[in-house]
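Running log. JK asked me to keep both predictions on one page so they can be read side by side. First protein, sequence followed by its tokens:
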Amino acid sequence: EMGLLDEAIGEFQKAARAPGRPLRPLEALAGCFLARDEPALALAALDGVARDVEAGRLAVHPADGGACEASLVGLCYLVASASERLGRASDARRWYVRVLALDYAFRDAAARLASLPAPD
């Protein structure tokens, strides 16, 4: 927020390397990359988490008190947004659908999904 993205990126990268793959630092890190208009770096930062979500190894659990769910929705949204910025409409569509399945009112996901070109 104060224009210190390089410093923030370094700190979020350190925090993201903590044991147990903490989701919030990864979400913040990807957000910083998107703020710098570097969607490929955002996707690279989220690659492992995205693979875990798609494989069902990372899912929302009610016992987490909602913290995991909030981060998971945010991470899926960031993957969708980065994919959209890179022109990967089918990937973006798939991730926006996942976001809406978790939280239909999340940010502008429904509008972004609607604005994507129709699937081939």
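And the second, directly underneath as requested:
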Amino acid sequence: MLKLLKKVLQVGEATVKYPYAPAILAPGVRGKPAYDYSSCIACGACASACPANAITIINNQEKGRRKWEIFYGRCIFCGRCEEVCPSGALTLSEDFELAAVKRENLITSAEFNLEKCQICGEFFSPAKEVSWILSSLREEGLSEEELEERHTILKTCPCCRRILTIENYRKALTSTIE
């Protein structure tokens, strides 16, 4: 027994005083996703990639708004949202202490305006996403004429775009037959 006690004293403490001292984190530890509203384009890629369904997207067609929400109580810190986010709005932080008294304290949400279709007037896509796509195309070196054409296409909902494509296809067919 004395040999064992002597060995324990030689080795020292094997545990950390975590609640009373800061935790020592390993490099690359995955904590809760940190959300940056200013760079989010509300595309919904994070919501479709989240295996725990912690991220939800809700469209309000009447008001033309999209609500983005993350519930950290469901989050499993897998990092899929960070991988798929095209604008870098979600990054995993080292913050893992998520104790909360109320459920509302574990929810982060944001609202975005939806773009209105220039033909039918229906809301269909986040305005920030359309602007982000246009700025990405501008960075790729598209001319102003090509950008204006893309801008017209991007401000048209998928249903109207499909109808326009079919009409253009029919016009092309009739002009080649005549």
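Observation for JK regarding the second prediction: The mean pLDDT is 89.
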